[in-house]
């Protein structure tokens, strides 16, 4: 039996930090943020649709999408974000499902689907158990500002474009609280692997 585990949380709550720890333990991670980059590469269908919808102003000189520019549009205008989601999300879903089948075919016993918008996109059906990486809002804002050099306003715009993390925690099978040190998070990850009896 293959276990399909969803890993989610909020922006900068620590999903990548946790998924890196799981990867080091030999687990297979399928990352929706990576998928969302692949499906918008030049010549892909989603790329063409994004350029048609948002115009060439969101392109860099080399023709690739200027993510900072597109981000500054969609995280300040909900309507624009929904348009982008409608273009990108179907392609991300197909990519994730294909990667999952590929991993199953190579004999993996556990597959971790790292999906930041798992609840927002109602993708609970894709996974059997859900891990939510939690962080308190103050720490989340600080880490997001530091990582992306965002103003507080830019950090809040991104956080507010997602469901509250406290709501996601209520729907979780396992919560990893990443408000503390990386070592504390590592211990929680190890306990979770034991509790769910996960084998790579
Ligand atoms: C707006 C874009 C260009 C900004 O790119 P950027 O490199 O700055 O951010 P990145 O893609 O690494 O995302 C960082 C985090 O932002 C959050 N986020 C991204 N897109 C969204 C969205 N549409 N709604 C809410 N939160 C989002 C997630 O927590 C994600 O982990 C990019 O995020 C994007 O194309 N988003 C639409 C696709 C999407 O929903 N991706 C999320 C997983 S499917
Ligand atoms: N326990 C921790 N202590 C201190 N800093 C941390 C901790 N966990 C993560 N960070 C830092 O916080 C930032 C956000 O973490 P990370 O990138 O893992 O979040 P994420 O949920 O994957 O973000 P995104 O949704 O944007 O992809 C990073 O700069 C990371 O180095």
Write the layout of secondary structure elements.
Blueprint: E1 3-9, H1 15-24, E2 28-31, H2 32-38, H3 45-54, H4 67-74, H5 78-105, E3 110-114, E4 129-134, H6 137-148, H7 152-159, H8 165-170, E5 174-177, H9 182-195
Parallel strand pairs: 1-3, 1-4, 2-3, 4-5
Helix pairs in contact: 1-9, 3-5, 6-7
The chain binds dephospho coenzyme A (COD) and adenosine-5'-triphosphate.
The site of adenosine-5'-triphosphate has 16 residues, from helix 1, helix 6 and helix 9.
Function: Catalyzes the phosphorylation of the 3'-hydroxyl group of dephosphocoenzyme A to form coenzyme A.
Subcellular location: Cytoplasm
Pathway: Cofactor biosynthesis; coenzyme A biosynthesis; CoA from (R)-pantothenate: step 5/5
Can you tell me about this structure?
The protein has a single domain (3-195), classed as Rossmann fold. It is 52% helix and 13% strand. The radius of gyration is 17 Å and the shape is globular. The protein is built from nine helices and five strands. Helix 1 packs across helix 9, helix 3 (45-54) runs antiparallel to helix 5 and helix 6 (137-148) crosses helix 7 (152-159). The longest helix is centred in the middle third of the chain and has 28 residues, at 78-105. It has helices at residues 15-24, 32-38, 45-54, 67-74, 78-105, 137-148, 152-159, 165-170, 182-195; strands spanning 3-9, 28-31, 110-114, 129-134, 174-177. With 200 residues, it is α/β, with parallel strands linked by helices. Strands 2-3-1-4-5 form a five-stranded parallel β-sheet, sandwiched between helices. Residues 9, 11-17, 33, 116, 143, 147, 178, 181-182, 185 line the site of adenosine-5'-triphosphate. Dephospho coenzyme A (COD) binds at residues 11, 32-33, 36, 67, 70-71, 74, 81, 84-85, 88, 92, 116-117, 161-162.
